[in-house]
Amino acid sequence: MAGGRPRDPHAEEAILRATLDLVAEVGLSGLTVDAVAARAGVGKATIYRRWSSKEALLFEAVATVAEEPPSPDTGSLRDDLLALSVPLGEKLADPHQGRVMVEMAAAAAQDDALREVQRAFVERRRASGRAILRRAVDRGEVPADVDADLVLDLVVGPAIYRSFLSHRPVDADLMVRTVDAVLAGLAVAAPS
Amino acid sequence: MAGGRPRDPHAEEAILRATLDLVAEVGLSGLTVDAVAARAGVGKATIYRRWSSKEALLFEAVATVAEEPPSPDTGSLRDDLLALSVPLGEKLADPHQGRVMVEMAAAAAQDDALREVQRAFVERRRASGRAILRRAVDRGEVPADVDADLVLDLVVGPAIYRSFLSHRPVDADLMVRTVDAVLAGLAVAAPS
Amino acid sequence: MAGGRPRDPHAEEAILRATLDLVAEVGLSGLTVDAVAARAGVGKATIYRRWSSKEALLFEAVATVAEEPPSPDTGSLRDDLLALSVPLGEKLADPHQGRVMVEMAAAAAQDDALREVQRAFVERRRASGRAILRRAVDRGEVPADVDADLVLDLVVGPAIYRSFLSHRPVDADLMVRTVDAVLAGLAVAAPS
Amino acid sequence: MAGGRPRDPHAEEAILRATLDLVAEVGLSGLTVDAVAARAGVGKATIYRRWSSKEALLFEAVATVAEEPPSPDTGSLRDDLLALSVPLGEKLADPHQGRVMVEMAAAAAQDDALREVQRAFVERRRASGRAILRRAVDRGEVPADVDADLVLDLVVGPAIYRSFLSHRPVDADLMVRTVDAVLAGLAVAAPS
DNA sequence: TATTAAGCGAGACGGTACGTCACGTCTTAGG
DNA sequence: CCTAAGACGTGACGTACCGTCTCGCTTAATA
Description:
Order of helices and strands of chain A: HHHHHHHHH
Number of strands of chain A: 0
Mean pLDDT of chain A: 93
InterPro entries (chains A, B, C, D): DNA-bd_HTH_TetR-type_CS, Homeodomain-like_sf, HTH-type_TetR-like_transc_reg, HTH_TetR, Tet_transcr_reg_TetR-rel_C_sf, TetR_C
Structural class of chain A: mainly alpha
Organism (chains A, B, C, D): Iamia majanohamensis
Number of domains of chain A: 2
Keywords (chains A, B, C, D): DNA-binding, Transcription, Transcription regulation
GO molecular function (chains A, B, C, D): DNA-binding transcription factor activity; transcription cis-regulatory region binding
Protein name (chains A, B, C, D): TetR/AcrR family transcriptional regulator
Largest interface: A-B, 47 and 48 residues
CATH class of the largest domain in chain A: Mainly Alpha
Oligomer: homotetramer
């Protein structure tokens, strides 16, 4: 048993593009499936056949354009961490992207499936961060028993906190000072 | 001309209570103005007369029940910081409250007025935190040029980041390890 | 046992005037008590203290400006009837007044009290018409057993029917032809 | 491009039936679109997709159940006219139907489109009446230059006037006496 | 003259219905 | 079986009026 018309890949592409365009224009909360369908020149059913909700659609659309997490290996822990955190800071500093990020976080908070998607998305970036720390351990820059997860939380947390909750500006300088403060803590914890 | 029947404070109270009850039951996204009105035994217009949106209503309801920010003065920077951060961690660890927090953050991201309310709310807590650091400076625990804002971001950020974005558990232990890591950084920055 | 402030006759007058102005502008269905109160510079309670509904208010407002029914006595039945019917035709021919009349009829259809008011209002005009016919009988113009009520119904009915239901124009010529046709019927019923 | 799901004729039917049921129960003014939707098991949008107002809906519902205008041909002008007017009299005599009729007239007075609908509805009945008179002319019962429109206005007007405005009872006897009076006028106008 | 009961403008109150919007599903005809 | 189009039932939205109810004032007639 088989056959039937195959799904049109053009439709998929058009939907994702329309989604990104619209979310940039009106935000996640202002996004409507009707508008996506109209913009993409597609029936609503064609969207729901592929995604279970507009949030799921947005998550995939965002994933589509998200570049691979950077895996920097500059030989310096500080530079590696900055290569990881500065792009995040730039994303949060952009009002559009920052708003969409917190709206996605809110959506994920209410839906187990989306939460898992977002967790996995973040985890991929964290894996890259753990690799950075592993190399730093190998180089002797930090003690072997460093709590990599906590270090990453400390590097990333302040920017998230500022952007999502305390509504103070995020910029590159913040990321630098954050990394330096965290490294200071690692140094004292591991004196020669 | 001044006249007119004054607004009924009982209605105000009933609305806020109904809002809190309902948001605890169904979350911000599941909250409807109709339901609040019904639960409070109030007409919808009575709600809209006071608040411009259900988000604004929720913000005030939450502010109403929010206890004053703790102003601990234990004589120890570490204990003071924990007194500040552990209650936040507990709030985030509760699925209900954590979800509502990120939903409120998303709402604030889309509305200037709400953003300002949230910013002020957070700022009051941060002021308490800056006082803690000032006292620590006075005691000589940390150098006078400590960047209090960054320290507070580092203390709070990881928990926010975990709860909102990376969806890993938050608990008291996390708060302790975070504070200790931050203090380690301060120590090395200010060696005797 | 004592007084209390007497009702302000200025308020009464202002309310009735505002009602007539507004009903001319927006019709009975578009009339709101709030608007009447605002226009009259009066509290809503001051209106409800005097009238039980906006329809009752309108009925009294209209009665206030309604001139006394004409009691023509030209010596000719034809002229007397025309003196009675032509002004009605003019009222119906005016789109504003015609619309308000049918709206008032609809309101009266739903409310016993208003129906009685309207019935009495019409009855006063009919009494004048019956007097006309009585005089015509006295003059020997028509037989003594003429059914005055039916004659009046025949004189007035066509204009009402055209205006309310069949939506064809009403004009003075219609009233003349109607009266002449009715008189023709009377003549044959009372030959020489 | 033509596609799209066709409108469900079952919904249409259910809506019209619910409308008639409800208007019989509560009258036009007591009719609510919500109630129609609930009774018909239909969403409100499904109603608004087809009709622009509850009045428009009612007009169509009434038209749906209105029997074709009688086209009597008894060979007698008197009997033909009675065949036309007596059923109208019965309709007006019924409090329910009479009330709805005047409410519909009031609605038509305020809306051009509805007025045209009602005008056309009445006109169809009037055409039947004109045919009656034409045949009477052919038979030589009345002169060729009879003003058919005026005759019909005279036959129908009194009942309308009584029901809508003067609030006196309408019954079959009234219709008979009206027709006889009108015929008397025609006879004198056309003596052998 | 002091009291007092009712009226006053203003406007908030609990309701009800409005007409709109977006949801996610379903039903067409056609490829 | 997929497609575009678009109607479907559901349910919340924010608005507009309804008729009632305080408010803090007059304003006269009564005691």
